[in-house]
Amino acid sequence: MLKVGDASDPEQPLDLDERMTDVRATQAYLVAGSRLMSYLCRAQLGVLLPTLTMELQLSSSDQGYLMSRYANGYLATQVLGGIIADRLGGYDVMLFCMLASGVCCFLAPALMDFGSFAFGTAFVALGMLQGMVFPAGSVVCTQWLLPSERSWASSISAIGSATGLLLCNAAGPPLVANFGWKAVLYLTGACCFGFSAAWAVLAASSPKHCGRASSAELAMLEKAGVLDTGREQKKLASPLFPPFAFFTQPCVAVLFLAHFAQNWQQYFLDWLPFFYNTRLGVSPEAAGFHIALITLLELPARALTKNLPERLLGRGFSLLSCRRLMSLQGFALHSVCSCLLAGLLTMQPLSASGVESPWAFTTIFGICKVSQAFHAGGYFANYMDLTRQYSGALSGVGNTLATTAGVGFPRLASWTLETTQGQWMPLFISLVSMNLLAMLAIGTGLSVDCLDDQLGKPKRRAPKP
Question: The CATH number of the domain where 402 resides is what?
């Protein structure tokens, strides 16, 4: 078993008992904290919307305008944020984004005095700032973590995202009821400032910029190929964006497709309130209870699966086999659940009072949510495998393309439900099809080989006759 400071095989798992004292673990936990903060910033407007609608008499167009502001800003800066993080390091980008996010949260209530447009502008800016957080965190993890640690880091980052969403939805309504809607924004802003202070003291872009990293740890990272003393000059001489040949590699296309497929699942889950209410005949209050139960299953699932890749490595599986097995399990389990849900729809036709019981649907939807936990140790960790030099740009492009599922699925869903008079079966078929396509791609084209050296090698000229 690899201990801290051991310059051993980087594919061997790290001793779990040693992680808490490891400087690398601190960076991974800080990145997970940044994902928690991102979801606090992201979810707060949805929590505030009912109160804002009543207090400020917002129209339907005002509601739609506000709810789209954050996403528009988020999509705009992911690639740019990745490029900047690749060049300047994730530390500076993250610190700036979190400090500025806190300022946006504190300014937003004052901007409401100038109307919903000005208020929405604060969330555009907040989305633009948070759009750079994901690639910046990926750059930090790529610079600090061994290949065998990346699945674990992806898992705890996903736990951070789920925790942020849960905290916002659980604590937001009581705060609004007791202190008013502005209190949520002020508290989120204060959390951004608090996290910024922790990041400023504890984080570092790379081991070379951290005085707390031991010489033994630096030697281990250098032997594993993570730390390269000559990479700084190479980075300054390299282009800001990966060469076109980078994105034509089959393994990059596989990564983007898998990410898109998982987002397709996630955007289907966003329609669950409508599904429970209109298809299952459940009241909005009861639907909210069932959906909360589904969401709560994600945290224990993330916790239980975060160390699974290391156990597989300890049993002799290669890193590539671990990545494939984790994501294939996730997509396969989701496909089976989608088929079961489609079968339930045919066995329980909608009556005037709805289905006899929604619990069967809730149970299977909960398993669907659990299936997504496998991907943190699967394709998602692959963002850190394929490149060290352009990890921020790769994460930015991949996350941007995957987010387009949020445009495609809602349009497909609304068109399908309108043209088929409320039939959900085509949407379940789309889930199964997307899962099978992702499984085929992962099974045949996934790779854990770093592309930097391959693409950096000069092409051999053919000998002259």
Answer: 1.20.1250.20
Query: How many separate domains does the chain show?
Result: 2
Calculate the alpha carbon distances from 193 to 172, 185, 203 in Å.
19, 12, 15
Give me the amino acid identity at 71: A
Identify whether the C-beta of residue 313 lies closer than 8 Å to the C-beta of residue 169.
no
Residue with tokens 């997509």: 331
Lowest-confidence region among 5-9, 142-146, 160-164, 364-368: 5-9
Domain range enclosing 286: 244-450
What is the pTM for the complete model shown? 0.74
Distance CA(317)–CA(333), nearest Å, equals 21
Distances from the Cα of 436 to the Cα of 121, 257, 325, angstroms: 40, 11, 14
Report in angstroms the alpha-carbon separations of 114 from 45, 59, 118, 222. Answer: 18, 16, 6, 55
**End residue of a domain, out of 240, 265, 293:** 240
Determine, yes or no, domain membership for 6: no
Q: Are 118 and 171 in contact (CB under 8 A)?
A: no
Task: Count the alpha carbons within 13 Å of 401 in the hemisphere toward its beta carbon.
Answer: 16
pLDDT digits over 351-365, tens only? 444 455 789 999 999
182 in the same domain as 272? no
